[in-house]
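User: Hey, my collaborator sent me this sequence without any context and asked if I could get a structure. I don't really work with proteins. Can you help?
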Amino acid sequence: MRCAERNSTRSAARRMTRCGLFPLHQDIITGPSRSPRRATLLLHAVLLVLLCGCEKITEDKFPAPLVACELLTAGEVAEVVGAAVAEPTRTHEVDEQNGHWISMCNWFAAAADVSAGVLIRPLTPGQESSQAALEAYREEIKEQLPDYQMEALEGVGEAAAWNSQMGQLVIFDGPYSYIVNVISRDADNQRRLELAKQLATAVLAP
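Assistant: No problem. I've predicted the 3D structure and written it out in C-alpha cell form, which is a compact way to encode the shape of the chain:
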C-alpha cells in the first residue's frame, strides 16, 4: 500500500509504521539499557500515530478489522511465558475513508521480564499470495532499513519470516499480516523464536 508523501522530512520508519508496516529499528526497541517494559512503551508510542491518508489503489474492500487483544489473551501469553501479565497496551486505529486499519496488543510479564505482543493489519486487496506479500514486505523494509534481516520459516501461517534483531515473527496468512513480537533481555534468539511461535499458534488458531 502506497502512502501519500505529505512531508519529505518524515522518517522512513514513521511513514511505514503509519501504513501498518511496523518497521521499528533495533536501536528504537532494544539495547543494553532498555528493559522489555520500556521497549513496549516505545513501541506503543510509535504506533499511536494516526494512520496516514493512503491512496486508494483498488475498488475491493479491506477485510473486516480483527482485534489483536481478542486473538492473544492474557491467559495465553501467561501460559507461554510462564508468568502473569499486566493489563495490555492496546492500539486499534481505523482509516474510515479507505477502510485500512491496524490493531496491536502488547503484554508485559514483570516476573519473567518479557514483553510479548501482536500487531495485525490487512493485506492490500488483490494480493496474489501470502508468499508474494512477504517478499514485497521484505523488499520494502530493506529499502528503508538495509540492515533488517529476515529468516524464512516453514510451518507458521502461509508464509513467515523471523527477525532476530527485534524479535519479530512476521506472518502472512489469508488476507491478513501478523507481527508477533517477543522482547526479553535474558532470552537468547532461539528462546525468543520458540516463544514467538507458540504465541503465533494462539493468534492463528481458528
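In plain terms: Residues 1-34, 42-59 have pLDDT under 50 and may be disordered. You can pass these C-alpha cells on to your collaborator as they are.
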